[in-house]
Structure formats: structure tokens, C-alpha cells
Amino acid sequence: MILSHTFDETKVINHLKHFLPAQAPLKDFVHHNVLHFFQNTNFHTANEQATKIFGYKTYLSINEYRALYESEEINDKTLDTIIIKYRGKENLNEFKFRLLYDNLHMSFSGRIGQVMHIWKDAYKVNLSKYLQPKLFRIISNYLDQGIALVEFPYTETSFLDNIRNIEQHSYFSYFIQKKGRARQWLLQNKNLNISDLLAILVGQQDWYEDYLFDMCFEHPGWSGIVNIIEEQPESITKKRQITLKEFIILELLFQIDYLDDRFDQWKPLATTGIMPKDHLFDKIEPDLPFELLKIWQEAYEWSYYQKILKALYSTNREIQTQDKSDRPKFQTVHCIDDREESFRRHLEYIDPQCETYSIAGFFNIDAYFQPQNSNYLLKISPAPSNPSHLILEHDSKLSYHIDRSLEVQKHSYFTGWLMAQPLGYWSAIKLISHFLKPHDNPATISAKNHIHADTSLKCDRKEDSEGDLLHVGFTIDEAVERAEELLKSIGLINNFSRIVYIIGHGAGSTNNPYYAAYDCGACSGKPGSVNARVICYFINKPEVRKKLLEKNILIPADTVFIPALHDTTSDEILFYDINNLTDEHKVLHQSNTNTFLKALDINAKERARRFVTTSIQNITANTVHNQVKLRTFSLFEPRPEYNHATNTICIVGRRDLSRNIFLDRRAFLQSYNYKQDLDGKLLPNILKAITPVCGGINLEYYYSRVDNQKLGAGSKLSHNIYGLIGVANGTEGDLRTALPSQMIEIHDPLRLLVIIEHYPEVVLKALDFIGDMKEWFVKEWIILVVIHPETGDLFEYKNEDFYAIDISECQAIQKININTLLDMLENNNDNLETYLIEY
To answer: Please, where are the H alpha helices in 55-89?
Structure first.
């Protein structure tokens, strides 16, 4: 009989849940801060704690920083400034010597795993080695979404009830000892307590929590995904009932079963007398190596930040007197995504009469989307949102929905065998052909397949459907509300062009389990095409425009909004809903299309300078573009694109502030005109969108870059997909979280710098209206700077207030001709300096 002990399982499990990885299944890959559990702590303090507790590497190494200093990427004067900031002028020479020459020894083992390691020290057994393969096979088979060779005999009950069902009705047993106590406890007791099992394994309540953390962080990927599915059951399409508690109980039972089989007698760990000195969460004392790393990191960041701020300060002086009364030839609204920065820059270069804007790529359409002939709902708004609206696809000319990655297709044993015979050899031939000459194939996942260009959407809703759990479509007032906020947020309330393009973005690739990470983060890892079509449909409606006029937004009758999708991998553009354009608008659209195609050619060539296997020197942009398109279809290409690599700033302001600055595809751009929002009422909603999206992207890239083995996913070349929910190395490994090396190898790990063009006192008030997201700035996970719209003066947010920044001693930003810049792009595959572009 198991003895009962007083132990607060609920409290401990909730504490454990807080620290587990929060990465959702692959289909909803949304970037996030992988150290989210320390987000209520200052960035640098969190880094030190994460290293000393969990063994994570949270900075570059001392030698990497020194190499950056030698290459002048870390500015000498900036380094001096940061040393003085933290150690005073009197200690400048001492600490500079330490930074440049001290031999520092750092441990990355952490406290995690110390208790479980006693099994190796005292009993010479490695429980994880023997039990994890079995545990992982069970859990991956149970959670499988449609690719397992043998389907789990699932019944609509709990995880442990399903295991009991197998044990009771099968000659096979998961347990080594079929008559052992562990198996009998599972079968006879449906109310197993974790504390009872820990009493047998550990024996001393003080160490129960440490043991659970050690065990779950032996496989944080699987523990994390179980926790996510428990908390968010909608995150998987084939529903499964499971809790983290059940997962823990099964592993504890397996441990007892193994130890019973291995030893005639064994005692709890606490009886060995070799328990660790410190508990996992005992107080962490700061030490010198981390202070030096902190100084190096801030010197690295501000060496780059100062150049951007100097360029913005210079530009601000020049835009105050500009007059923009002429009607633009066309206007575009993009996502804030950093990959759109260069696309916008090239559009403006090819046609200076165009205007470009940007906003979070869900375009204020907070909804789920249900493809035709699909039972699954796809969230197409930011991950933290809880949409109450549903957009339906209908009238599709296709007999099935073409996004095959969302569908589960099965064959019987007989039909599968029958089909394999004639098709097997043909498939092998096609595979060889695909390697020799990459081309589109059924394995290719493309953003263009998210919704077919010829299909229709059900967007309208009448007032009489208020009782629905999810409202199908939006009412006129709801449509007006979203259109108004969109247009006012970006500052586009008058002087509309004849055609306004709202351009969502997505990506495409072949043989890439991370495809969702390349799509729009503001759309929960989905392409933004549905959102673009819906908002354009609303703004084109006469009754919506009539109500927008009452809100001082005048859209001329000859203005039409056209939705589009930019594939950031192949640099192609797809336009929707253009069949009903007037003849005059068709002529204008065709002219604009030619501009888009030229811009995409140049954009592809700029991107290709990063691809080692793509030659661009003295080759036309169109030729390079064709090579880039092939990367999308290549089975052996682990880098279809670099996604958000090198992202480091987010500018919230007028386009004129940054239009002539070369930002090298490193900037998120949020359009915002302070003149139309002097009281800052629109600013909180903008911050609520960019903070988790841009901040999450930045920090996931940061930590995946500095510790790709523990905080990243390692190389994707050895990854296998498990159950359509995650990836693991080999066939029996833990699920890998965050980003693979092929996505972060060119990334510079800098925190995100958010720059807002407005009065400091207005931004200060806006921060009070963004709730818990304010801690991103207060705790310095994101660095915030305000640029005064009249004087150009700069203010840094520290200690919940703004303080002036002196950049007078910063080197002036070099002005460069656009043609010279294009030549530099052709001959340099590293990050380039910040330049002021002269067109």
C-alpha cells in the first residue's frame, strides 16, 4: 500500500508549467520569448538565472564579443560609455582590461538534473536512457495527428485510461514486470497521486519539486507539448485528452517498474546522503563574469542602435517642410514584417510616385478561417487573441481544399499495397527527377494554397446571429470599426490613390517542417491572404465608406482596394478579386503590376546575396530571381529563405522618417502619423500588436542564436517529424523547440529596439494602457526610444520614465547613391552599414 504524504501537487505542477517551453504544434508555429518564464525579471538578471538554474547559454561567449570588438562592430567609445554606466569612470581602465584580457571560466551545467543524477552516482543506472525511448513512442503515438503506421487504440477518455485499456486487453505490456507493483497501481487506482510515487523514489518532500523539474527537463520538448495541448486543446486537429500530471505519473511508474526489475532492494534518493547543496530555486548570487557579459552585450547593441538613431535624427530634420499634396500613383499596405522592408524600398525606388504603409499583417481582422471541405478552424489573428468571428470559404471550384498539410488521408492495407506496386517505381523516378531539376510537387507547401484565388469568402453577418458561439462574418458596424482603426493607425485617412493594395505575406518551401514559422506571425503562423481579402472587401463596400466618411475618412469613389499576397520565399505576388475592376482600373493595375514585378526581381537579388549557393555577381536581377524561385521547390534546400534573421529594430512612425535610410532588411516598420493622433489614443493598440509579435520574434532568434543546442533546435538536417506536432533528432529523441541553425546562423543577437515618433509624455501615458505587455519595456526585454517629432531629440525609456540620449558625438551617417548601394549589395554577403540613400 502506498503511503500518503502532504504535498501540494497542484501548486508544484502549476509552477512547473510556467517554466516549460511554450511552443505550439508545428501548424501554429508562433515566435515567442523562450525565456518567457523569467519575463517579470530584468533581462540581464533573467539571463544569469537561466544559466545558473537551467544551464542555458544566454550571451555570446567572451571570445565572440572580443572578435566583434576587433572587427569594430563593437565601438570603442560605446564600450567605454557602458563601462562607465555600470562601474563609474574611476573603474574604466580596470574593467576594460578585464573585458579584453581576463580569462573567464563559466559553467553551463546549471542546477537542473542534480537530483536525478544521483541514480547514476549511487545506483549506476541511467533511467532516462532506458525509459525515454518507450515513453516517447507512447506519447507520440497517442498524440499522432495522422502519420503513424499503426493508430493508437484511442478511446475518448483520459491518457492514463487509454494506457489502462491497453494493459487490460492486450498480451503486451508497457511494463517490464507485468505483476509488479507499478503496473498494479496503475490498474487498480484511478486516483494516483504524484506525491505517493515521489515518496518511493525520492523519500524527502523538500526534494519532490526538484525531482519533477529534473525529470521533465530531461525531455522539455515532450513535457512542453503535453502542457500546451492540455491548456490549448484546440492547438491540435485530432483531439486528445491528456494532462501534464498524467504524463508525469506514467513516467514515475515506469521508473519504479525499472528499478524494481533491476534491483532486489533499493531505497529512495534521500537516503543516499549525497543530495545537492542547493535546491533548484535557491537564491542566485550575481558574479563578475555575468557583469562583464552584460557590459559586452549592451556595448554590442548600442554600437548598432546609435547608427540607426543618428540616421533617424538626421532624417527628421529634413521632413518637417515636405509637402505631399499630389495624389500618389498607387499605395500599398504591407505587414510590419522585416522582410517587407526591402520590398517597400524597391517599390519606392522604381516608382517614386507610390506610397507604402505597414501594419500588423492580420489587418485588424481578428477571426478564424475555415477552408471549404475542411473541418478545421485556423486562427488568422495574433496568438494571444480570442476571436469571436469566423470567415468561411465557399463556392470553390476545387473538389477539395488544396492545403494538403491540414488534411489526413488514409488507405486500407489492401488499397495501400495495391497502389504501392505500380506507383512505387514511378515515385522513385519522379524523386530522382526532382533532385536533378527542382519543380513544384505535392510535397511543396505554398502560401498561395492557403486560399484559392477564384474562391469566395463569407464575410457579412446580420445582427440576428448574436447567439452563435462563433459569429460567421462581421456586421457593418464591426467592419467599419476595423477599417477605421486600420486606416487611422497607419495615417491613411485622405489623399487616397486610385488603387490601394493591401498585401499579406506568406512563404513556401518543400521538405521543411518549419513552414509555419515563415508565414505571418500576426496571423498565428498563417499567410495573410484571407485577412487582406476580407478587409479590402469591407472597405470597398459603399455602406462602409459612407460610415467611414462620418469618421472623417474620405475615400474617393474612384479608389479601389485590391488584396494581394507576397510570397517571401519565391518573391512572387498574387492578386485577388481583380475580375470586377473597371477597364480604367485594369489598365492602372497592369502598369502597377509591372512595377511590382521589377521590385520583386531586385528584392530577390538583394536576398540572394545571403545564399551561399546562389551566384549574383554580374547577373541580372530577373535571372537571380528565377534561381531564388527554385529554392522553394528544392528537396535538399534547408534554407529556402532566412526569414527574420538579423531583425533588430521596429520603427513606429511616418514612412518619411525612414524612407531614405538603408535598413538592410533588419527593421519592422509600423506606419503611424503622430499628427493624426496627438493624444496617443491609437498608440496602445499598436503597441499591443507589435510588442508580442516583434518582441517574440526577436527574442526567439536571440536565444536560438546564442544557444542553438538547448534554447534552439540544432540542425534541421537530422530532424524527423513526430505525429505532425513537432520535430526530433533521429527516431527516439525529445521534441526540439525554437529555431534550427539554418534559420539563425547569420543572425546578430541584439534585443529589439522600438523607436516611436511622438512626444515622450504621450508615449508614457500609452504604456499605462497596454497591461502586462508593459513589462517587456520595463524589464528591458525590448529597448524603447522616443524621437521627438519636432526637434528630433531622442529619449530612452528607463525606470519607467524617459531620459535624453546624447548622440552628438556619434559619427555622421554616410550618404550613398542608390546605384552604389545596389553594387554593394551585389558584392557583400554580410550586414552592411546604415546609410542615407540618395535617389
So the answer is: 62-70, 76-87
